[in-house]
Design brief:
The protein is 38% helix and 17% strand. The chain is an alpha/beta fold and 173 residues long. Strands 1-5-4-2-3 form a 5-stranded parallel beta sheet, with helices on both faces. The protein starts with a helix and ends in a 5-residue tail after the last strand.
């Protein structure tokens, strides 16, 4: 596909969030499909505080096994928007999602570019409102810290939920 120089220049000045938003809106799958035949669908509870955090301790594979049921419930939520995973561990792929019983058609995996501010990207994804929940793997500063406040605020603006997963891995086996 050929683009004009003006179009190429405009793409060069867009940030990653704008590019993501444009790609999402241009895709045929702007909202997940409702292929729910034979699947258990749950509704997302209304929450006043749009931010939650889970701290897991153990081997990375073990932590993902503990997290899989939470992600499964979120992916089966009766919500027309995406479940978005921001910078999940490298082992989280569409193959892993299928093997854990999740529906990859309802889940977006977003990986930031090296050097990007993951907190800023997460807040941008929350504000866009294209996801019912954005699951992130950020090192936060505690439940009352600045990053948690920013995530709460962004989730409120996008009318969605933010779930941060903090992995504390053991050094000793």
């Amino acid at each position: 596909m050929m683009y004009s120089r003006d179009h190429q220049r405009s793409i060069g000045t867009m940030n990653q969030t704008e590019l993501f938003h444009n790609a999402l809106m241009a895709s045929r799958h702007a909202t997940p499909t409702k292929s729910t035949a034979g699947k258990r669908i749950t509704s997302l509870p209304e929450v006043e505080d749009g931010f939650s955090e889970i701290k897991l301790n153990g081997a990375p594979k073990q932590c993902l096994q503990w997290l899989a049921p939470v992600l499964r419930d979120l992916s089966q939520a009766e919500a027309p928007r995406w479940l978005t995973l921001l910078d999940p561990p490298a082992t989280v792929s569409h193959k892993w999602l299928r093997s854990a019983g999740l529906d990859p058609e309802r889940i977006l995996i977003v990986r930031g570019k090296p050097g990007m501010d993951s907190l800023e990207l997460c807040c941008d994804l929350l504000r866009l409102g294209c996801s019912h929940t954005v699951v992130s793997w950020l090192a936060t500063d505690g439940n009352e810290g600045r990053s948690c406040h920013l995530l709460r605020q962004a989730a409120g603006e996008g009318h969605c939920q933010s779930l941060n997963v903090y992995l504390e891995t053991c050094l000793a086996a």
